[in-house]
Amino acid sequence: MHVKAKQMAFGGLILAVTVVCMALGSVIETNTLFLLAAAAFFVGIVIREFGLRTGAAFYLAAILLGFLVTPNKFYVITFAAMGFYILGIEAVWMFLMKRPQMGHRMGIYWLVKYVIFNLVYLPCLFGFRSMLFQKAVSDQLLLAAVMVGQIAILVYDKAYQYVQGTLWEKWRKRIL
């Protein structure tokens, strides 16, 4: 596999910014989710610029480096979940764009988005109940957490679309 020098340099810089965002999430507690989401958005930038394979390698490198550098490992796991969502939706998008004859592509795309999110979110919510909540929680509160997650993914997805479509398009002309 031959990698261009510019691609390697850009990937290294973005990887450094990603890990800094993860580490800052541990330091600046009030902006943790914002910084982890920003770090995960870089996975999508690398995928769109260099392809799915390079993006997957970048994602794995960010997780490994995050475990080595970041003081709070729980934030790296959160980044991994957010990045996995982006990796998954970008892969599905690329798959669907190669098949223009397929009907209801946007409906399929949104359905798969929710499936990928829930494959990550629900096992974490139910499996790590004691880590997420200080006391034992009722089933109603757990159901509320599931519903809040379904709404939060809409906000996260809209923010990702804005970053990719607006912010990155402006900055990529200056950077690349």
Automatic annotation (TrEMBL):
Protein name: DUF2232 domain-containing protein
Biological source species: [Ruminococcus] torques
Keywords annotated in UniProt: Membrane, Transmembrane, Transmembrane helix
Top-rank lineage group of the source organism: Bacteria
Membrane spanning stretches: 12-43, 50-68, 74-96, 108-128, 140-156
